Amino acid sequence: MKIGKQLVPGLSGIALLFSSLVLMIKGYKVIGLRSIDLPSNWISLHPGMKPSSVETIFIKRKEDTISFAKKLLEGKKVYSALKDIIQDILISPIAIGYYLIGRFVFAKSFIASKDCTRCDLCVKKCPVNAIKIVDNRCFWTHKCESCMQCMNICPQRSIETVHGFIFGISYLVYAVFLVWLYKLLSIENLANLYFAEGISNSFLFIFDSVVFLFLLFLGYRIMHFLLRFRLFERLFVLTSLTTYKFWRRYKPSKKYMKITTEEKHATSQPQ
Predict the structure, then answer these.
(1) What is the rounded CA–CA span in Å between residue 170 and residue 180?
(2) 29, 66, 159, 190: least surrounded by Cβ within 10 Å?
(3) Residue 25 CA to chain centroid, in angstroms?
(4) Helix, strand, coil percentages in the chain from 3-state DSSP, rounded to 5
(5) Which domains does the chain carry?
(6) Region 88-116: what's the mean pLDDT?
(7) What global pTM score does this model have?
(8) 122 in Cβ contact with 146 (< 8 Å)
(9) Per DSSP, which regions of 118-261 are E strands?
(10) How far apart are alpha carbons 224 and 232 in whole angstroms?
(11) Closest Cα partner for 158 from 128, 131, 177, 190?
């Protein structure tokens, strides 16, 4: 991200190490490791960055990428990413949390508002084919990885992250349903009876998570049905932070994309 005139590095976690390990297992020789921090597009979690900040980051990272590639082509080995290995390992639990939240929570919070024209661009461009049409409306299946591409390319800005739905389901599950279920079935007493203390806490966490995900998926299907009614559609949309102008969508740098397109065109021309 960019703070003032300074570019603050992101946190790569252990994804780079895992990908390197996979390559080595497949028999490849890894001669370079370099993290390239790009603007975050996870607008379910935060507003999109300002276009000027995106442009600055794109241009700077392009320079870094070219420099890295040149060193590799010169036969040099570059393992600059290893200097962050301790930090990356320490933050790996956060990275796992991000994955779980993005993959199983935010991924079930996308809706298409009344502004959707059914151009089906999101369906066609989804990299994992997670969006299908149900009841003549876009429906995000369990395959969604919360990559944000659909939200950021929608020409009508009709795709929303329904934050109100997420908070509502969370409250109902943890403050109402689980409290009632624990009392009804004496879940905590059963866990303490059959498991040691540490395992008991883990069991309760898993139990709570399974119940939450089940009700989240069920609630999403109910919400999708209710979207056909104007009152509910407005309620869900207006409780979505992404519907408001201050919650910017992510847009790649137009200047950078223009330069890159021109370069590709130039290199594709016969010499």
Answers:
(1) 15
(2) 29
(3) 27
(4) 60, 5, 35
(5) 2-101 (no CATH), 106-243 (3.30.70.20)
(6) 82
(7) 0.76
(8) no
(9) 131-134, 137-140, 159-161
(10) 10
(11) 131
